[in-house]
Amino acid sequence: MEHKINSMKTKTILISGASVAGPALAFWLSRYGFKPTIIERAPEIRQGGYAIDFRGVAMAVLEKMDIVKEIKKHETRAGKITIVDKNNKKLATMPDGFTSGELEILRGDLANVFYEATKQNTEYIFDNSITGIQQSAGGVDVAFSNGEPRKFDLVIGADGLHSNVRTLAFGDEKQFHHHLGIYFAVFTTPNFMDIKDMAGLYYGTLGKRAGMFSIRKDTKAQASFYFASPKIDYNYRDINMQKRLIHEKFAGEQWQIPQMLKQMDDATDFYFDSISQIRMDRWSNGRVALLGDAGYCASPMSGMGTSMAVTGAYILAGELKEADGDYSLAFARYEEKMRPFVTAAQKMAEGAEWFVPETRFKLWMSRQIWKILPYTPWKNMMIEMPAKVANSIKLKDYSFEKISEMSYDLS
User: What is the mean pLDDT of residues 303-326?
Assistant: First the structure.
């Protein structure tokens, strides 16, 4: 039998993750009359992180949010990228903005912008995490690592590649995690190479690549390490262990790597993970749904992760509003609209092994490709293809008005 509760001005939704996807979802939910709560494991908004960019329809979502101007205050648009040898001699150069999409910003800066845009209408709970999810006809009983249990109508996992919500509601990560054969680390350092105009340098050797990009108007730099490897059994919360792993992998390498390793030891925003994808047959289970990397990570190699996160947030919130609280219908429509976009975006990461070649032939071939790429039609293809995928999804114009009365299915 179907039961309905009428005249509800808000509907409680717990969102796990306060990076990008979670706050983007809360932004829209609060405008539609829902009552979002965001829980975040970290004690505050996480700073630093690699540069992320927006393309295509994601730009339209940011325009609707009226935060493009604020994001541009922190814009970090990459300049030219130069491939160098161990003596810092130029081997090849890519043009300005080759990898930065239409709008680029550091992940931590974007998270701060989203937090400021949502904190007035969203309950934030920091330094806490979800430890248990129990669904029933009346909602979701949620247990936490700190504090008393609470009940919510819905739970959304927007907590990244290693989603805690996904594990609790769908099962072990191993069944959804697809390793693309590369690990990477990124962190902020002084701009000790004095790189100008937000440009970047890449140095590659067999199975490894290191990079330095100028940021913060050339006052700082973003350093990165990449190495090819089968899956490694490591603790993804143990930063000291991860730094030791980078030291082991890059010990004895030339170029600026010794200095980069020293700077890494003091970095407070160090981030390490595999370059992987999450592939799932469904993104919802009852009253629990997944958003962004938690449900469909495409990996940094795709250049589409952030665009998918903000687009998915816009669609998920809009469909919950349009379905008048019928979450099963809303989740189904959300997936129907997003699935083709996600599939195309994940295909963008194909060929990731060429970024960190493991054989001498592939390393040589990779360098030749970088040398001739600016002078071939491939250059335009590599710029146009991401734009084509980013515009492959059509946005529905959901109404901005808040819902004064809502009903939802408790059957």
Answer: 92
- Give me the pLDDT at residue 97, please: 55
188: left (phi over 0), alpha (psi -120 to 50) or beta: beta
**What radius of gyration do the chain's Cα atoms show?**
22
- At 132-176, the pLDDT tens digits run 999 998 899 999 999 999 999 999 999 999 999 999 999 999 999
pLDDT (0 to 100) of residue 156: 98
Residue 96 is predicted with a pLDDT of 61
Give pLDDT, residue 378: 61
Question: Whole-angstrom Cα distance, residue 25 to residue 38?
Answer: 10
Phi-psi region of 194 (alpha: psi -120 to 50; beta: other; left: phi over 0): left
Token pair listed for 145: 């690592």
Query: Is a pLDDT exceeding 60 seen at residue 2?
Result: no
At position 251, the amino acid (one-letter code) is A
Q: Per-residue pLDDT tens for 69-126? A: 999 888 876 678 899 999 999 988 876 655 667 788 888 899 999 999 999 999 999 9
| Angle at the Cα of 364 from the Cα atoms of 361 and 365, rounded to 5 degrees | 85
The burial class, CB within 10 Å (0-12 / 13-18 / 19+), for 234 is middle
Residue type present at position 375: Y
Instruction: Return the closest-CA partner of residue 148 out of 125, 169, 166.
Output: 125
